[in-house]
Amino acid sequence: MLAAALGFCALGAVAAGAAVVSPDDRRLETERVTAEQAGVAGLIARGKTETKRPAVLILPDVDGLTPHREDVARRLAVAGFLVLAVETPPADGDEALGRAVAYLAHHLESKGDVGVFGFGAGADGALRLAALTQVKAVVAYDGRGSEAVAERAEAPLQLHYAGLDDAVTATIPAFKKALEAEEKTFELFLYEGAAHGFEDADKPEAYARRPAELAWDRAIAFLESRLGTAPPVR
C-alpha cells in the first residue's frame, strides 16, 4: 500500500531535550539490560502492571540512545508496548539485533510478535530485520532500502522520509520499485520541507512539530494494526 505524500511549508521547533513522558513517570517500569541478557545493551520500558504486551525494538541513529530516544521508548511504553531501546549499534550487527528480537519475543510480558522502530542508520537495520519471522512490523524513519531488503522482507513496512534529506530520498524510487515488484506490503510517506531528524526533539534545528506528530500517530496506528492493540497503562 502506498500513501500519498504530504507537504509541510513551515517547520516548528522545540527546546532541546524536551520530554513528552517524564523519566520518573509513575506508570512505568524502566531498567537497563546488558548484551548478555538481551542480545544488546539498552533500556527496557513497560507499564508497571504485569500483563502480556506487544513488543517493540527501537534502533537509534548513530548518536545512540539520546534523551529523545529514551523519551520515544517511554512514549511507546505509555502506549502499552513492551519496549527495548538499543543503547548503541552492536559490534556484531544484525546477529546481535536478531538476539534482541528473540529476547523480546520470549520475554515473560511479551505476546510473542515484535515490531521494530528505527531511525537513520537504525532504520537501515530495522529494514534488514523485516526478514525475521518474529518481526511483524517495521517503522523506519529515513531508512535506506535496497533490492535485497525488498526481496527478503516479510514484515509490513511503514516508511517515513524527510523531503530535504536528499541523500536518502534519492534512494526512494528504486526501493519503492523493488517493493512493488516483490509485491510487499508497505506504506510510504514523504514530508516535504522536513529535514533529516525532523522527529527528533533533541535537534531544534531540524525538528518539525506537525510532521513529527503526524508520523508518530501513523506509526502507533500501524504498530497496533500489526501487533495488536496494547493494553492500557495506568
Automatic annotation (TrEMBL):
Keywords: Signal. GO terms for molecular function: hydrolase activity. The keyword Transport does not apply. Residues 42-85, 97-225 form the Dienelactone hydrolase domain. SUPFAM superfamilies: alpha/beta-Hydrolases (SSF53474). InterPro entries: AB_hydrolase_fold, Dienelactn_hydro, Dienelactone_hydrolase-like. The keyword Protein biosynthesis does not apply. Pfam families: DLH. Residues 1-18 form the signal peptide. This is Carboxymethylenebutenolidase. It comes from Methylopila jiangsuensis.
